[in-house]
Amino acid sequence: MLRFASIADLHRAYREGHLTPLEVVEHYEQVIQERDGLINAFITPTLELAREQAAALSDPEPTSPVWGVPLAIKDNIAVEDVELTCGSRILLGYRAPYDATAVARLRQAGAVILGKANLDEFAMGSSGETSHFGPTRNPLNPEFVPGGSSSGSAAAVAAGEALAALGSDTGGSIRQPAAFTGLVGLKPTYGRVSRFGLVAFASSLDQIGPLTLTVDDALRIYAVIAGADPRDATTLEEPVPTYSELLKTIQGLPIRTVGVIRDFLESPRLDARIRERMEEVIHTLEREGFRIRTVELPSQRYAIPTYYLIATSEASSNLARYDGTRYGFREEGDDLLSMYARTRGRGFGQEVKRRILLGTFALSAGYAEAFYLRALKVRRMMLEDFARAFEAVDVLLAPTTPYLPFRIGEKKDPLELYLADLFTVGVNLAGLPALAQPAGRVDGWPVSVQWIAPHGEEVRLFHMAFHLERLYKEGTHGP
Ligand code: GLN
Q: Is the pTM of this model over 0.85?
């Protein structure tokens, strides 16, 4: 059976004339049929669309960095005419009237869409267990969760059911599932990738990004989806160079100093096995000639409460639109109000309701000052802490997750699940770019580290990630 190690690998096969995009789609279709009954990575496969797209690729060989690449798209990102569920009952039957900008750009560049990937309901979760369409399983061991909320995106790629995927990251939802499944996951700078067509969870935090097998694959997708968009006023104006220009810039960067975040590394919540592996990575980098400096981010102590106040506040407002009149599911009532109440009562799952309640409370008169506004002040402090750290170092290195994958059903307390985001949410609150990548294994599980860079400096992430990937591939340092 075919198995591609990267997009470059697939492109080699195209160029050497071994394969056509249509044959590649047929291959993935077969894998999906064989494996997805167990893994549950896809909510809505779009194989007919994929075949049509593949058949229309008439160039004799790849003409873009993502040409002929079969993708899974997280099901909170719009693909025209395809059902858009957000993993929720409340959107059942709703079809997206247009493509998200990121999707349109990928299609334009010749990428092929295999289907819509499972996710925690409305991207709220860290385990892939809250979807109305059932939990996604981790292809590395199906008794375990694949992480979330981009659970299906990660599982599809890790299972070989897609070559790469799009996810969304509001508080870690690309990086954490990438960590649990041994993939590369990129959360771009806030505003780097258009949010047009991404269903809003917390609009000041949400970003779309890739989950891939390799660092180069992530760069290819990033190069295609990034850039200003008149349909999203928060996108950055700065033009994004092409993939090959980016590669050149990345190679030539003079990065010398890597900061390690003391507050994360010394956190009592960090699994000792992950800490050990982190220390090994740090030593490896030192041997490679990088200067390592310890930095303090004291405000990160408040990361979880700050994130869960801001994210739930924004969510409570964003999710007010699902009332049975406009989208998908409706439960009739005796009058308008009871129709709203029944639709929302039956349409949303438990975790989404919990978030709406929390957010509504945090914003309510008399409490907003004590909760929401205070959280905004702490957010400001976090920005300042990161800015101070980047005066002394070029890039930061941190563990991606505090713990390794756990069994499906094992973590029942929502607070315990919220802690999965301990090291990821600070990046979203500060709007920074971060890239998670595997760096060896413990007890059979991949361990992930994340690189964090200043605003707009994705190239630094890629520089370090290429370097580390090379070290671990050559086997000198990995197990
Ligand atoms: N796990 C976090 C949450 O549940 C992150 C979600 C996300 O990034 N979409 O809110």
A: yes
Q: How far, in Å, is the centroid of ligand 1 from the Cα of 281?
A: 27
Which contiguous run of DSSP H or E holds residue 244? helix 243-252
- Classify 7-250 by CATH class: alpha beta
Question: Can you give the pLDDT at residue 2?
Answer: 76
Q: What are phi and psi of 233, to 5 degrees?
A: -65, -15
Q: Are 70 and 3 in contact (CB under 8 A)?
A: no
Calpha distance 175→451 (Å, rounded): 11
CB 453 within 8 A of CB 192: no
Quick check: is 58 catalytic?
no
> Measured from the CA of 170, which atom of ligand 1 is nearest?
8
Separation of CA 439 and ligand 1 centre (Å)? 23
Cα of 170 to ligand 1 centre, how many Å? 6
User: Is the Cβ atom of 171 under 6 angstroms away from ligand 1?
Assistant: yes
DSSP 307-372: HHHHHHHHHHHHGGG-SSSSSS-----SSHHHHHHHHHHHHS-HHHHHHHHHHHHHHSTTTTIIII
Q: Among residues 74, 116, 187, 411, which one is catalytic? A: 74
Q: What Rg, from alpha-carbon coordinates, does the chain have?
A: 21
pLDDT for 474: 60
Amino acid found at 91: L
Is residue 124 lining ligand 1, measured as CB closer than 6 Å? yes
Residue count of the chain: 479
Residue ranges of the chain with per-residue pLDDT less than 50: 476-479
Span from the CA of 441 to the centroid of ligand 1 (angstroms): 24
Question: Is the dihedral angle over the CA atoms 306, 86, 65, 469 positive or is it negative?
Answer: positive
What is the per-residue pLDDT for 18? Answer: 86
Catalytic residue of the set 149, 150, 153, 448? 149
